[in-house]
Amino acid sequence: MSAKPHSPSDPGEWINRAYSNLLRAQTEIKGVYLEDLCYDAQQAAEKATKAVLIYRGVRFPYSHDLADLLSIVEQTGEIVPEPIKQAARLSRYAVARYPGIIEAVTPDEHQEAVAIAERVVQWAEGIIRQSIVR
Fold first, then answer.
1. Which of 42, 51, 76, 110 could form a disulfide linkage to 11, CB 3.0–4.6 angstroms apart?
2. Can you spell out the DSSP letters for 69-82?
3. What percent helix, strand, coil does the chain show, rounded to 5?
4. Chain segment 46-100, per-residue pLDDT in tens
5. Using CA atoms, how far apart are residues 96 and 28, in angstroms rounded to an integer?
6. Chain-wide mean pLDDT for the chain?
């Protein structure tokens, strides 16, 4: 990753941030709640999706709802494959970092969240590859 942050209007910076969240989501550390790691998976998918919107020249709403964000991506003419649409399942983790909002996340749910986030980040990076500076 670049040592110097890019402009918030640079989709590459959003992809860099998505990878940062993804790395945290993938890293199980003793004492860290799986809910927090799933939040990072959700954030990775959200930032990657917003990178695509920036790349397509679309102002995005301040929303954590991945179904809505992916719908906006589709409205730009970009094809959103079915495996990427699974990111909508991550939206519930946007509030997972707060106690008592959702039930405890299982290890299987955590692994599924990470796998979905990985697919979304890779998909988004593929779309905007030519504008990424790392």
1. 51
2. HHHHHHHTT----H
3. 65, 0, 35
4. 999 999 999 999 988 888 899 999 999 999 999 999 999 999 999 999 988 788 8
5. 16
6. 91
Q: Amino acid letter at 38? A: C
In terms of C-beta density within 10 A (0-12 exposed, 13-18 middle, 19 or more buried), how is residue 112 classed?
Answer: middle
Whether the CB-CB separation of 36 and 30 falls below 8 Å is answered with: no
pTM: predicted TM-score of the whole model, two decimal places:
0.90
- List of domains in the chain: 11-128 (1.20.120.330)
Question: 68 vs 6, 34, 50, 64, 85, CA distance in Å?
Answer: 26, 25, 11, 9, 10
Tell me the one-letter amino acid at 122: Q
**Which amino acid would we find at residue 87?**
A
